[in-house]
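WARN  no MSA supplied for this record, continuing single-sequence
INFO  ligand: DGJ
INFO  echoing inputs
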Amino acid sequence: MGIIINQNVFTLHTDNSTYQMKVDDKGILLHTYYGQRTDETDYSYLITIADRGFSGNIPQSGDERGYSLDTLPQEFPVWGGGDFRVNCLQADLGTGVNDCLLVFDSYKTYHGKYALEGLPAMFASGEDRVDTLEILLKDYYEEFYVRLLYGVFEADDVITRAVVLENKSQKDISFNRIMSTCLDINNSGWDMIHFYGRHAQERQTERTALFHGITELRSTRGASSHQHNPFVILAEKNTNEETGCCYGVSLLYSGGFHMQAEVDQTFQTRLVMGIDDSDFFWRLKPGGKFTAPEVCMSYSSTGLSGLSRNYHNAIFKHLIRSTWKEKQRPVLVNNWEATYFDFNAKKILSIAEEAASLGLDMLVLDDGWFGKRDTDFSGLGDWYVNEEKLGCSLEELVHKINDIGLMFGIWFEPEMISEDSKLYREHPDWAMVVPGREPVRARSQLVLDMTREDVQEYIKERLFSVLDSANIQYVKWDMNRSIAAAYSAKLPGGQQGEMRHRYVLGLYSVLEALLERYPDLLLEGCSGGGGRFDAGMLYYSPQIWCSDNTDAVERLRIQYGTSFAYPMSTVSAHVSVCPNHQNGRVTPLKTRGICAMQGTFGYELDLSKMTEEEKSIVRNQVKSFKEHYRLFQFGNYYRIVSPVENHDVTVWEYADKNGKEACLAAVFTDLYGNAISHIVKFRGLCPEGKYKLFRDGEFEGEYTGAALMQGGILLPVPKEDYDSFQFYVCLEEDEG
Ligand code: DGJ
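INFO  complex generated
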C-alpha cells in the first residue's frame, strides 16, 4: 500500500514521489512534505515555530505566541483562526460571520480509489496499485466536518485530492469559497508555468516568477475557458524539459475556476485551486453535503517532460473511460470549414465519396442540419432534422454514407438556445435571463438553464431521438458562449450564487446519461474550439477539438501548450484549406498534415475540390497516420524544440514506450539565405539498439540509439515557407 501511517504522520508514496501530512499536538493537519520519493521520517522538523508578530494564535496554542496558522504549512487552511493567507474555505457555520477552525477527527484507508457523486474523478481498475486515504476534520465548535480525500496512484506518480463538506449540525451553513486543494511549499523562488489565451489562441505558454504577494488565474466565464486553463505548474528556476523539479496541479472541472499562488512573509509558497468563487455562494442545510471537484497533482524530478508523461499516462489510464480509448480513432472529415451553413445532402455526399476514396473513416456533419439554422442567429434548441434543407431524412443520408464505407458523426450544441427558435417560443423561461432585464447575448444566443431537470430531460429526449434515428457513432458536443448573467427561475433569491456550479453538475449529469445509453459513442468535446479543454471533460470525451484556429503554424503553439497537461491523443486536430480561414496564411499541405498528426487526425475542407496532386498527398498522409497510429496514441510524447522559445523550427517526437520505434516531426517557421543546419536529438530510444532511419518515408541510414539520442540528426535546410519533415526510426529487427 502506498499509504503508511505512523501514529499521527501520514506518508503517501508513489514510485517516485512522497507526500506527507501530520496531525500536530493542537489537532491541526499540517503539510510536511511533497517531493522526490523519500522515507517516512517525520518532516515536521523542518517547520519553524517563531512569533512573526501580528499573526493570530488559535485557542489551542495557549501561551505559545509562535504557534500561528498564519505561518504553518497546512493541508486545508480556512478563513478564521488567524491565517491571513489565501485559503480553501470561507464558511459561516451559523454564527453570521465567516469563521472556522478545523481540527483532526479521524481517518480511514482502503484499497482502490474513492468516487465522487456527480463529478468526474480518476478511477482505478482491480489490478492497479491505487489506495485511498480519507481524513476527517471537524470544526472546533460546531458539528461541521470536512472530509479530505486522497487517491494515491503509485505507478503513475499522481495523487488526487477532493473535499466533501458535511453539515451535521442543526443550523444552516453557508460558504462563499471552497478550494479543492492547497499545496504549501516551505520555500520560495518558484516559477509558475500557465496557459493563457483567447478564442483561436488557446493555451499559450507563459513562465513567470512568483513574487511576494498573490499571483492568480481565474475563469469567471462558466467554462474552464479559452483565456486560462485549470492546469498550472510550479517549477524551480533551472527546471527545463529534461531536468529539475516541478509540481503540476490539474483541476477536473469544466466550469469557472480560481487558482492563487501566494508567497508569504516567511518566504513560503502556497497554491490553492478550486471552483471560481467570484460569484459563488452555497447553502448547506442540516444533514447536507457538498463535494468540491477533484484535483490531480504530480511531482517530477525529471523536468517538465517527466511531469507531462505522468499526466499523459494517468489521464489515459485512469480518467478516460471511453471504449474508444484503446480503439483506433477514425480519421474524419468535418464539413464546417468546407461548407459552413451552406450544404445539403448532395454536397455532404460529394465530400464523403472523396473521403472514402482517400482512405478516411468518418464524415462529421457539423452545425446547420437542424431547425431553422442557415446562420448562427437562429435554431439552437430545435434538434429536429431539417429534411427540407438536407433533401432527405438523416437516416437516408447516414445510410448512403455508410454504404460509401464511412462512419457518420454529428454536431450538437445542447446547452444553448436561440431566441429565434421553436424551443424559445415555447419555453422562454428555460433561457438564463435575469428577470426584468434584457438578456446578455453572445454569438446571438442564450444559455439554457442546465440546472433544471425539465431542461435536462428535453436535451436528453432530443439527443436520444436523433441518435436513435440513424447509425451515428460520434457526437461533437459544442458550447459557443460564456455564461454572463447566471440565473435560474428555479432557485430561491438567496441561492443564485449556486447557479454556476449547479450548471456544471447539470451538464455532467446529461453527459453521463448520454454515455450510459450509448457506451460506444465517440464523444468529442468542443467549446468554440478549445474553450473547455480540461481534465473534467476528458472523463466524458476522449478527444476535444483543440482550437477553431486550424492554421498549422499557430497550432504549433496551441498544441505545444496543450501537451503539458493532456495526452496528445485527446487533441483533435484537422488539416484545413489554404489560405487559412483564420489568418490567411498559406502553408504546404504536407506541413498541415504533419501538424494535425500531432493529435487525433482529421480534415476540415472540401476534399472534392482538391487537385489530383493534393489528393495523392492526402492519401499518403492517411496511410502514414494509420501505419504509425499506435505510436501516436500509446507512445511517449516529447517536446524537443519549443515554438515559444525557438522561432526557426518546432520539433516534437513520439517514442514507443519500449523504445522500439519513434517518429520525430520538424516544422520550420522561418527561412534564411545561407541557412545553418539544425541538429536535433531523439529521446526515448534504446542506446544499444540499431535503428533504421527514414525521412518522409525514404530510407536514410542506420544508426545506434545512442547516436540518435546523443549525437542527433541533421535537419534538412527548408526549401520553402513552413517546410516540414517527418523522421521515423525503428529497431532493425522490428522493421515491417
Ligand atoms: C465552433 C466549433 O469550434 C466549430 O468547429 C464549429 O463546430 C462551429 N462552432 C459551429 O457553429
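The first strand starts at residue 3 and ends at 6.
INFO  checksum written, moving to next record
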